[in-house]
Amino acid sequence: xxxxxxxxxxxxxxxxxxxxxxxxxxxxxxxxxxxxxxxxxxxxxxxxxxxxxxxxxxxxxxxxxxxxxxxxxxxxxxxxxxxxxxxxxxxxxxxxxxxxxxxxxxxxxxxxxxxxxxxxxxxxxx
Amino acid sequence: xxxxxxxxxxxxxxxxxxxxxxxxxxxxxxxxxxxxxxxxxxxxxxxxxxxxxxxxxxxxxxxxxxxxxxxxxxxxxxxxxxxxxxxxxxxxxxxxxxxxxxxxxxxxxxxxxxxxxxxxxxxxxxxxxxxxxxxxxxxxxxxxxxxxxxxxxxxxxxxxxxxxxxxxxxxxxxxxxxxxxxxxxxxxxxxxxxxxxxxxxxxxxxxxxxxxxxxxxxxxxxxxxx
Lengths: 126, 226
Fold this sequence. Notes:
The complex is a heterodimer of chains A (about 130) and B (about 230). Chain A is an all-alpha fold and about 130 residues long. Chain A has helices at about 1-45, 50-70, 75-95, 95-120, 120-125. Helix content of chain A is about 90%, strand content about 0%. Chain A starts with a helix and ends with a helix. Chain B has helices at about 1-20, 30-50, 55-80, 80-90, 100-110, 110-120, 180-185, 190-195; strands at about 90-95, 100, 130-135, 140-145, 170, 175, 205-210, 215-220. In chain B, a hairpin with a 2-residue loop joins strand 5 and strand 6 (about 175). At the A-B interface, helix 1 of A face helix 3 of B.
């Protein structure tokens, strides 16, 4: 009976860690992706201040969440996004909008890829 | 480097707890499902220990999942004989009344050398001595000798042997084993009394054994012997 209780507690822990972890990751990726979309749109509309604001916000939020994300995901992908976000911030400060626009797209793709990789879909499982 | 060290310590602790939860059988005789879990854990644990790029959770979570699988599978096996047979197989009779079952040997892909080696380890040197030899589900071979070949017991000779019970270690390296004392039905007062008669203190004793009749043997620590 003791073993069954321990097993049930561990099962609950696994469920919380795995399901909760995926939900949290998706929420963070979605938020960062949204900021990058806004920054990209601002670049297309030739609004450097708006683009810089969204990029700065994305970097700030990413830095806040990255520590927790590193407990759940491989560090390589997360560090790459972090580096790309910082480069985007530099581009925004330089007001290099065409370059910033492609950088935002690159970050969005990376976020999308990381987000897709974590979803429990058949092509990921198999 | 420090991360690897900390991770190794943490994973070691988790695996220790895990094997403790799996039960004692895991340590000695492995069934198929237990062997699978044991092999997998050693591999899974090694990854986050060495690769600090991987989060710890990527090692811990699969280990916990394996633990859960093992606990639930062993519970189902306990309740359902059919499932147990499916997973662990059945014991197979290899020798019956001194006659070898060639079909069973072939099915188990067991060579004559393997069988004779197992028989010799059971102090059987001729096949005719065997009443039954059974290949157990954990791979071990149990041997039951013919009555004429068995060692005569005191009971068979109607000898009235006193039951002294199992000899237990009551002091180990200067520490009293309360559980062993209780097992023998003895008390700490009795123990201290025995030691004082020999002019010894608990901390001077390397090993002290006793049985339920109060028979005891004391080995002093080296350098303390008078």
